[in-house]
Design goal:
Layout (H helix, E strand, L loop, with lengths): L2 E7 L9 H17 L4 E5 L6 H11 L5 H4 L25 E10 L4 E5 L6 E4 L8 E7 L2 E6 L9 E4 L2 H6 L6 E12 L2 H11 L4 E5 L7 H7 L10 E4 L11 H16 L1
Parallel strand pairs: 1-2, 1-10, 2-8, 9-10, 9-11
Antiparallel strand pairs: 3-4, 3-6, 4-5, 6-7
Helix pairs in contact: 1-2
């Protein structure tokens, strides 16, 4: 089954002036990418960096039971209680858990790990990894660290400056790049059948989305690139839309819904 990857501009939520609404929209966005098990989230620089977005994204991508250990008090997080819970699949694991190392005893080489269980886990380690998010696994009655790397189940945003360079470095023989635009080719059953055959032959699909104020044609024109040259398909996935503009997060949900059926 082909992995889903989503590419978005850095200003995807910068048009929302109200922090409460922005917080809820970002939480819903994280629910969407977790719902479809997006492998990678790539954020390319467009006009400006959005620090609020980056912080809130990191907050909602972190397992809920680890947030109070990872994040300090910050006024930009004051509306997170209004947002819907993410409830990513890995939060219900039993014999395997994602945890954060909160303390280390250098004398006995013991790390204390919070993993959302009734009691914190103590594991013998050879180094101080306080603050690191890791994966632990229960073997019989004991817990062991099975990976010191950020768990692959947690989507880790990749921030890039140059989308052209990123796309050009991909192996186009093993992937499919789907760019979305209302100026793109209208989706229909014949095209869906064609895409269905293509998807079976690739390992990954990269979905590229525009910003609230500029579509991909405008964005690529600004950087002196041709959208078709950097895409396998440029698609309008919402023919006969009944509203003037579709929000990028709405477009992501609709797009992944369609392709999720094709990759099943």
């Amino acid at each position: 089954m082909a992995d889903f990857n989503v590419i978005i501009p850095s200003d995807i939520f910068s048009d929302i002036p109200n922090l409460r609404e922005k917080t809820v929209r970002i939480a819903n966005f994280v629910r969407i990418i977790n719902l479809f098990r997006v492998k990678r989230l790539i954020i390319f620089h467009h006009h400006k960096q959005d620090k609020e977005f980056e912080l809130l994204l990191d907050f909602f991508l972190t397992p809920s039971y680890l947030r109070k250990f990872k994040f300090k008090l910050d006024r930009r997080l004051r509306f997170t209680g209004c947002a819907p819970p993410i409830r990513a699949f890995y939060e219900s694991w039993k014999e395997k858990r994602i945890g954060i190392i909160i303390d280390y005893d250098p004398i006995n080489n013991i790390s204390k790990i919070e993993a959302g269980l009734s009691n914190q886990i103590k594991i013998r380690t050879n180094k101080n990894l306080v603050g690191k998010i890791i994966t632990v696994k229960k073997i019989e009655k004991n817990w062991e660290i099975c990976s010191e790397n950020t768990p692959e189940e947690i989507i880790k945003p990749i921030f890039i400056k140059n989308i052209t360079q990123f796309l050009n470095n991909l192996n186009r023989e093993t992937i499919l790049i789907i760019s979305t635009s209302r100026k793109g080719k209208m989706i229909n059953l014949n095209l869906l059948n064609e895409l269905n055959q293509k998807i079976k032959k690739v390992n990954e699909i990269f979905f590229v989305f525009g910003s609230p104020k500029e579509g991909l044609y405008e964005i690529y024109k600004e950087i002196g690139e041709n959208l078709e040259d950097l895409s396998d398909y440029v698609l309008n996935l919402f023919p006969n839309q009944g509203i003037e503009t579709i929000r990028t997060d709405e477009a992501i949900f609709g797009t992944l819904s369609i392709f999720n059926i094709l990759r099943s």
